[in-house]
Amino acid sequence: MSQDTLFDKVWDLHKVSNLPGGSDQIFIGLHLIHEVTSPQAFGALKDKNLKVKFPNRTVATVDHIVPTDNQSRPFKDNLAEQMIETLENNCLQNKIKFFNIGSGNQGIVHVVAPELGLTQPGMTIACGDSHTSTHGAFGAIAFGIGTSQVRDVLATQTIAMNKLKVRQIWCDNKLSNGVYAKDLVLHIINELGVKAGVGFAYEFAGPAIDELSMEERMTICNMSIEGGARCGYINPDENTFNYIKNKLCAPKYEHWDKALLWWKSLKSDENSIYDDVFKLDASKVEPTVTWGITPGQSIGINQQIPLLDDLPPSDQFVAEEAYEYMGFKPGQSIKDIPIDVCFIGSCTNGRISDLRVAAKVIKDKKVSKKVKAFVVPGSEKVASEAKKEGIDKIFKDSGFQWREPGCSMCLAMNSDKLTGNQISASSSNRNFKGRQGSPSGRTLLMSPAMVAAAAINGKVSDVREFINK
Amino acid sequence: MKSEFTSPIGKISQINGECISLIGNDIDTDRIIPARFLKCINFESLGESVFEDDRKTLKGRHPFDLEENKNASILIVNSNFGCGSSREHAPQALMRWGIKAIIGESFADIFYSNCIAIGIPCFTLPKESVQHIQKYNNNKRLFLNIDLKNSLAKSKDANFHLEIKDSSKKMFLSGEWDATSTLLENENLIEKKYNNLPYLKFNTHFL
Ligand code: SF4
Questions:
Q1: Are residues B112 and B191 in the same domain?
Q2: Which of A414, A468, B4, B42 has its Cβ near the most Cβ atoms within 10 Å?
Q3: What was the ipTM of the complex prediction?
């Protein structure tokens, strides 16, 4: 059993009771909702004749179904329109703050909450979305829940949950030039496997993590769930506090000092006990690309798709499925595989720093004629900042389409989809079969800089060839 | 989709039914229910669309399309079943197709809690036993009686000791797996927690 880690401290602080079944009742400090997983929860609340207990602890935005080309209402897609209307009504009736399209604060829920200063150290945060782990970057304990649990949070501000174990992932040294947080987290998932995190919270620590910006830390925590860990976090530090300072919902004036005092007391103790520790050397990580149908099936840009015999027996089954689905041969290089679509966006890599890095690569270059490329900023704030910096123009000049904020082709609930067996280079987080809207579509996950490089060459490329010149 | 659907309520202690085997590791929630079916404001019609893309690809040969599985209600899966998104639509779709319990090598965390929350017990068995059942089920019908209290699954020829989290087992046996009312019983404690959390004091102006 872990002891004195940040996870233990935050868990204990939020524990309301031991439930008869043996699980804990945990108070949720911040509840985030969106249009996809909340309607049934509000419906169930109504059926049970219950009210939202603390409406001021829930915040809503709309992200999954929004079109990213034409956002005028009503949406062209009736079902999408029905979903946003349902959310609007539920928020209105229950007095829940809703950041709607055009508010200047709408966007992917995991991009929006941090940039508003809602996400803070020491909180418990829940959302009906598996990438809620993102918020752990601030030293919050944040996890995805299902719709029945969304109902429970609305009705009671608590959920029933078994405490997780804690694995520390210690990253030594630092990332080399042209290698980003995305590469590091893909590498970690590859090393540990996609199910190693089941039953665990991941604490990311070490010199390589300390060096990362808050947005890079969010990329790492975001993908904890792809490694099976429902929750990932990083101990808060000066970086964390500076990021939150002056954000719209951040504590102000004398409250700020109190907050800071408390936040500084929040971290894993020097001699805390972990259920497991995993160490790696971050300087050895290369730009990383997935070749298969799980986020764990990745390799460095200069490596070959593994042979069946090179894989542990437990991975062979899915590998065979992946060769067949992807149409790639074992032993084949990942480099130079032709790309049809390039997507920069999502809650993993749709933040301003992601767009800056990709824009730097694409500047004064052109997108290959064979490629359809588009950028979907993670939020309205990201979009407006990008415009201020002229980043939208860099993308447009190069041949990228510039879109309105939303989840878009990360999961293709709007009209942005792959068709047939197209291959995408994508800065998102899941390469599952059919994830990007075509039942035979293929996704290669990589960093935004690598997507930009792929867009220029029309094939999987090593971004270091562009930035080291 | 099969016979009329009724959601489970109250105590769950026995589940009897035919098995349906679905072979594969890391079967994610996008495969169980593709994202386009999440465009809905209730779960009712999801049963027909379970595994839609996989079923289309296999043109009638998918286990969920086979005539002999028409009445099956116990799903047998391999490892890390239900990984990926938190969509409760996935277990909802399985349940509405007719699944009442799942036995597998291992389950993804959020999928597991979603199943428990809607009344689908998930049991684990060692890999060898799962594969043994799947192999048998491949050419013969397999009817299992699951006795939750003793964590036992019995068939005509064999017994299996199932594993299930103690907390989940207790919830099903007592009928308190629908958590809201249990949680609400501690209303006073919830209020107390709310009033004492340090950060709620410095976030007073919050929204
Ligand atoms: S961007 Fe993708 S992963 Fe993130 S919340 Fe939206 S759909 Fe989910």
A1: no
A2: A414
A3: 0.93
